[in-house]
C-alpha cells in the first residue's frame, strides 16, 4: 500500500498539471493555484517565491514552450531519483508515468492529435527536448535542488500562461514519461495501475495527448523530488543527476523567460545548455534528446506496458519520430509563437475533454459500483481492473478504454472540433470558472484518449462510464438549449384560456441551467432545492421578479447510496469552513479555491491520496469532490463531549382519558415488537414515565425481579427518586422492560384520575435526560390541567368556520418554549404524540417539539376501537417512528456563496446563531426551509453554491457529518429568472412564510400575502412581456401552476376560512407545513387524483417484479369525477377511493370484493387481496404510492352519497365552495388585481 | 430645585446611555455568533422594563420630548406575543431581519440618550447659574 501511495503521489503530480491547465483556462485559477503550488514545492529550496513572479512574466509563447520543457524535465528528475533510491519510490514513479501515458496514450492518435493540435505536440516535443537536455547534463546536481524548486514555480507560471496556450498542457504528460523510462522495469513489476498500462499502449501516440496534462504534473513531481526524493536522486547515478539537470534546465528556461536571477544562477552549472536549448527549441536539442532519451525511454516502454509505457510512450514517440519530429516541433513552436493563441484554444478544448474523460475514467469505478459505505470497500471494489491490467499486458487496453469513450463522444470528427463545442458551452454558460480546475486536472490523459486512434475502440466497457462522453453530449445539449431562444419554461401561457393546466404526469423539479457535468454532480432535488434555479444577480432584480428566494432542505433523507468518507483530516476552507465539494476549483494540484468565499486553500497531503482508486495525486477525484452528497466520519475535533448513546424516554399520559382512548396497548405492542430494532448500540438506554395528576417513575435496574413503580406526587417541585435506575440499558434490563410493557396497558384500567400534569412530567423528563440528551416521546391525550404549563381551552367552537379572525394560533404560554430551549441546550428533543378527541391547545403544546427539533404527530379523535383507521395509522407510524434512523446532538449549518445571506429559517429547531441550527435530534422525515436575500451584487460570479452540513451523532455513537452542496447559475435578465422558477419549491416556501405571518400577524394577512404573491409575480412578468394581449393573464411556463397551487394553499386546512376547521387541525396543518419535506408537503397542498377503474399496463413501470400502472393525473375538479368511474386521491397521509354511483360492477367486484355499489360498506379502509387483474393493478399502484412516503397512509373508500364524501370533496380545490373561489374565479380575481 | 431634577435626569440619562450601549454590544455579539441567542435574549429582556420606568420619571417639560420614546417602549412591551419570552425572543431573534431592526432601534435610542444627556447638562448648568 505504501508503494501504491507513492505511486499515487506520482499520479497526483500528473494530475496537478491538468489542474493547472484548468486554472489557466479559467484564468482566475491559474494565478492563485500556481502560487500555492509554489509555496508547497518551494519550501525546500526557498526559490519558489520567485516562481510566481516568473509566472506572471511568462506570457510569451516561447516562454511557455520553455516552461513546458522545464516541467518535463523536472519529472524526469523525479523519476530518476526515486528509482535510484527507493523501490517504493520507483513504483510511485512508475505510476506517475502511466498517468502521463494516459494523456499521451495512443501513438496513432498522436499523429492525428498533432495535426489537429500542432501546438500541443510542439510543446510536447519541447519538453522532451528539455528532458534530453537534463539527461545530458548530469553535472547539474548541486545546483539542481534550488533550481528545481524555482523551475516549478516558473512552470506554474507557465501554466497560467500556458493555460491560454496549448503548449502548457502537453508538457504534463512528458514528465510522467521520463519517469517511466528510468523506472520502467520497476513499474511493470509493481502494479502499474491499470490506467497506466493503458497509457503505455498509448505511449507513442498519446504523447501528444499526454502532453497537455503533463505540464501540471511536472511541478508536483519537482516538489516531490525536492522534498523527499531529491537527496536520493542526488545520490543516484547519472540518471538522477540528469533529472536534476533537467529541472534546472527547465528552471533555466523558465528563468530566462521570467528573468529571475536565481534561476539563471542555478542553471549556470548544468543549465546553461538546457537554457540554450530551450530558447532555440531547435532541432539540435531535439536530436540530442532523442539520442539520449530514446534509449532510456525505449527500455521503459518495453518494460512497463502501462506505467512505463506512459513514460516510454513519450520517448517512443520521440524515437519514432526522431530528431526530425522534435526539431520540427521546436521549430513550429518557435515559429508559431503567434499561432499559439489559436492553438491554445484548441488545447484548452482538448484539455477540457480530457478532463472530462479523466474524471469519467477515474470516477467510473466509483460511480459504476454502488458507493460503498466505507473506504476499504471502495478500495477493494473499485480498482481491481486497474490492478489486473497493470499486472498483465492488458494495461494498454485499460488505457484504451478511456480513449474509446472519448472517441465515442467525439468520434471521427477531429478532436479539435469537438473541443471547440465544449469550450463554447462552458463559456456560454458562464460556469467555466468552477470546473476548469477539475476538468483540467482530469483532462490531460483523456484528451490523449480522445485523440487516440480507433484501435482503442475495443474497450467499450469503459466508454459508457466515461464522463467525457457525457460531457460531450451535455455540451451538445447545452448548445441546443442555447440555440432555442425560448425554452418550455419561458413559453407564455394564457392562464384563463388554458383549461388543462395540470400536466398528466407528476411535476418534477426543474433542472438548473448548468452544463451537464455540473448538473450531474449537483445535489439531488429531493435533498436540496431552491425556489429559483437561476439566481438573480442583484436584490433589485429579485425584487423585480417578485418571487420568493429560498432553499428547501431534506438533509437527513433516507438514501440508498451515500459515500461515507473516513479521513483524518476533513478538508475545509480555512476561512469560511466550507467542506470541500464538487464545485470548488483546483488551482493546481496543491491548492483549491473555495467556491463560497473564494479563499485559496492548500490541499492537505492526505487528500492527495484517493482511497477509491488507491492512487496518489488526484485530489479532484476524491469522493468528496465527485459527490455533492457525502458523509464524513468526524474526528474528535467535532465533539464537545464523547458521542452520546441512544437514549429513549417515553412519557405517557395515563389519565382516565388516555386509558379510555386505549393507545397504551398499541404503543406497548409496537414497542415490544420493535424493541430490538430501536436504533442504537450496546449503550442504548431506555426509560418510562407515566403521569396523571402525579408522576410515576419506573425503576428498571438490572437485578430487580420486576419493575418498580415510584410515584412522585409533589408536582410543584419535581425530583427524581432514583436518578440512576430510571434510564436503563436496553440489553441489560430487557426482561424487565418487556415485563413493564406487558403490564402497563392494564395497570391503569380502573383509574379515575382525570387530571393531567404534563408540565411537571416534562420537567422531570428534562431532568432525567439532561446528563445525556436523547429523545423524549410524549403521549398526551388532553389539555394539561395541573402544575406548571397548564392550559385553558381557547377554542370557541362557534368560530371554527369564521371567515374573519382566527385567534389563538400562537402559544398561550411560554412555558413549553422555555422547556424546549432548555431541552435543546441539553441535546434532548421532545416528540409529541397528541391523541385527543377534544381541543388540546396544540398551538401551545407544539412548542415543546418545535424548538427542541422534535416532531409532532396528531391523531384527532383517536380511539383504539371506535376509530380503527386512526389506531392502525398510529400503529404504523409508531413502527416507522421507532425504527427509523435517528441522529443525536446535531447541528446544521447552511452556508452560501458570499453575497447571499439567509435571514429566516423554517422547521423544527432552535436557531443558535445566524446560520447555525441546533437540532437535538434529527430524523429522516424532517424538512427545513430557509429564506435568502441577496446582500451584495453577484455580478462577478456565474455560479452560486449552497452547502448544508449536518453534524450528528449516529445511533451507533459515531460522529458524522452529512454534507449537501447545491450549485446554481447566476443570471442577469428577468426572463432567465422566470425560466428557472421551481414552482413547487416556491409554493412550499410561501406556505412556510404564510404560517409565520398567520401567527405573528393574522390569518387574513397571510391569505392576502399569498394572493399578492401571485398577483405581484404575474404582473411583474406581464410587464416584461410586450405582448398585445394585456387583457389576458399571462404566466411563464415555469409559473403556470403557481396560481393553482396558491389557490390550493388557500383551501388548505391551515389557511382556509369559511369552512369549519378545528383549531388543533389547523395548527397541526401549520406544523406540518413547517416541518415536512417538500415532496410530502406538495401532496398535502395539492393532492394527486387518478382514475383507477380502468388501469392499464400502458406506460407502467416495473418495481420489484411488480407491474405498477401509471394512470394520468386528473385535475382536482368534480367535473372529472364521472359517475361511472372510481378515483383514487392521494393526499399524502390519506388515500381516498371515491366510487361513483354508476361504477362498473366488475370493478367493484374485482377490486372491492362486493357484488354491487349498494353493498359496499360506508366505512371501508382496506382493499381485499383478490386474485384478479384489476385488483392486482390497483393494489400494486397503491402500494407503490405508499412506499414512496415514510409515514403510513390511511385508505378510505368513499361512496358517492356517503356522508364522508365531504372529506373527499374538500380536496377538489379547483371547484367553487361556498366560501372560496373556483380556480377560474381565482384567476379572474388575480387578473382584476393586476389591472388595478 | 430645578437643578436637582436635572441632576436626576442626568443620572438617568447616563444609565440609559450605558443601557443602549449594552444592547448594542449584546446584539452585535449575537450578530457575530459570539453568544447564544438564548443567553443574549435573557440578558436583554431584563432591562427592557427599566428603560420604560426611567423615561417616565423625567421632569414634565422634558416629558413631552420623551413621550414618543416612552410610548414606543411601552408599546413594545405590551405587544409581545403571548407565547414569546419578552421583547427579545431567542427563537425569533434571528428571523426576518429582527436582529437588524433591534440593532437599529438600539442605535437610535443611544443617539437619543446622548442628545438628552447634553441637553440635561446645559439645562442643569443654566439652572445652577440662575440660582
Automatic annotation (TrEMBL), chain A:
Q: Does the keyword Endoplasmic reticulum apply?
A: yes
Q: Name one Pfam family in it.
A: Sec23_helical
According to its UniProt entry, one GO biological process term is:
auditory receptor cell stereocilium organization
Q: What main location does UniProt list?
A: cytoplasm
Where does the source fall among the domains of life? Eukaryota
Gene3D superfamilies noted in UniProt: beta-sandwich domain of Sec23/24, Sec23/Sec24 helical domain, Severin, von Willebrand factor, type A domain, Zn-finger domain of Sec23/24
For this protein, the record's InterPro entries field holds:
ADF-H/Gelsolin-like_dom_sf, Beta-sandwich_Sec23_24, Gelsolin-like_dom, Gelsolin-like_dom_sf, Sec23/24_helical_dom, Sec23/24_helical_dom_sf, Sec23/24_trunk_dom, SEC23_SEC24_subfamily
Q: Where in the cell is it found?
A: Cytoplasm, Cytosol; Cytoplasmic vesicle, COPII-coated vesicle membrane; Endoplasmic reticulum membrane
Q: Where is the Gelsolin-like domain?
A: 1109-1182
The UniProt regions of compositional bias labelled Polar residues, in chain numbering, are: 78-89, 242-254, 265-277, 311-323, 436-456
Comp. bias regions, Low complexity: 221-233, 255-264, 290-303, 335-344, 405-423
Coiled-coil ranges (or none): none
GO CC, sorted alphabetically, is: COPII vesicle coat; cytosol; endoplasmic reticulum exit site; endoplasmic reticulum membrane
- Compositional bias segments (type: Acidic residues): 345-358
What family is it from?
Answer: Belongs to the SEC23/SEC24 family. SEC24 subfamily.
Record's PANTHER family? Answer: PROTEIN TRANSPORT PROTEIN SEC24B (PTHR13803:SF42), SEC24-RELATED PROTEIN (PTHR13803)
Q: What is this protein called?
A: SEC24 homolog B, COPII coat complex component
Q: Tell me which species this is from.
A: Jaculus jaculus (Lesser Egyptian jerboa)
Gene transcribed to yield this protein: Sec24b
TrEMBL record, chain B:
Gene Ontology biological process terms in this record: vesicle-mediated transport
Q: What stretches pass through the bilayer? A: 6-27, 48-75, 110-129
Q: Where mainly located? A: membrane
What's its membrane topology? Multi-pass membrane protein
The record's keywords, sorted A to Z, are: Membrane, Transmembrane, Transmembrane helix
Q: Which domain of life is it from?
A: Eukaryota
Q: Does the keyword Transmembrane helix apply?
A: yes
* Protein's cellular compartments: Membrane
One GO cellular component term of this record is: membrane
Query: What's this protein's family per the entry?
Result: Belongs to the cornichon family.
- Please state what the protein is called: Protein cornichon homolog 4
What is the species of this protein? Answer: Jaculus jaculus (Lesser Egyptian jerboa)
